[in-house]
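Exercise 7.
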Amino acid sequence: MSFTAAAPDAPAASGPAIVPISPRDPAPRRGRARGPAGRRSILNRLTPYLFIAAAVGLLLLLTYLPAANMLWYSLTDWDGIDKEQNFIGLQNYLEVFTNPRVFGVFFVSIYYFIGAFVQMAIALYFAALLSTRTRFSNFFRGVLFFPYLINGVAIGFVFLYLFQPGGTLDTVLGWFGMVETPQWLGDPDVANFSLAGTSVWRYTGMNFVLFLGAMQSIPRELYEAAEIDGANDWQQFWALTFPGIRRIIGLSFILAVAGSLSVFEIPFIMTGGANGTSTFVIQTLQTAFTFRQVGLASAMAIVLLAIVLIVTWVQRRVFPDEKVDLT
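Solution. The predicted structure, written as tokens, is:
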């Protein structure tokens, strides 16, 4: 077949143009695309769900499944060794709330709860002080945050030597004429104060970083406008800084409540729970692995979780998370 080209001055043919189609050209297909491109599009749609499936699978395997097992163990008298697990109902929970040896250790958390407010006050003070341009501010920020980076076991051993009789603290106090020093870890009336002070030294840096980051997110133009209006530093703090970091303060309060109820590292390393310093977590650990009462220990863990959730819920109801608009 041959085609003859038209002359340049020939009139154009009327009607739609006809485009020749080669016999080898495949006919157009309808429906979903198949082949590598179609498979890539399906894989792209499934990729986010694959990542989510892996995370959810690990969460179910390592968190929710052990929690479900612990809930079942709390209803049995299992000792952690025997294969038999006798169902006893709510007897373990009654033991938790009626036995003063078990539930009484919750009162030790009061020392750490008070210490949490002390560390929040110290962190808030230094955050307000170092949020402005002061000399060597970066150095002091690092000094305040450094204790939080140290391992809790190392901190326990360091303060164990600090509080021992004739140790560093007694030596320093002796320079000021104090000869009769108390047994910082041996006296039940003083030991919890010493341990709570150690906890304050360690966790102040975390609150300091939270407060400092929240303060630095407040626009500096607001402080400049307040200075023009004649507001002093204290008035600026209550009118601008405190409302701007109220959410972070609420978060720190939740962490303080949960942390004071679940203290473990510091008292376990320094005293092992002796001299009236045993916390609820230490008591749970000893009940499970020393006295071989895994069922009772599981009930104690469930009770601790419920108390933390209830206190957090009450705190959110009393102090709702309202949006703050400083403009």
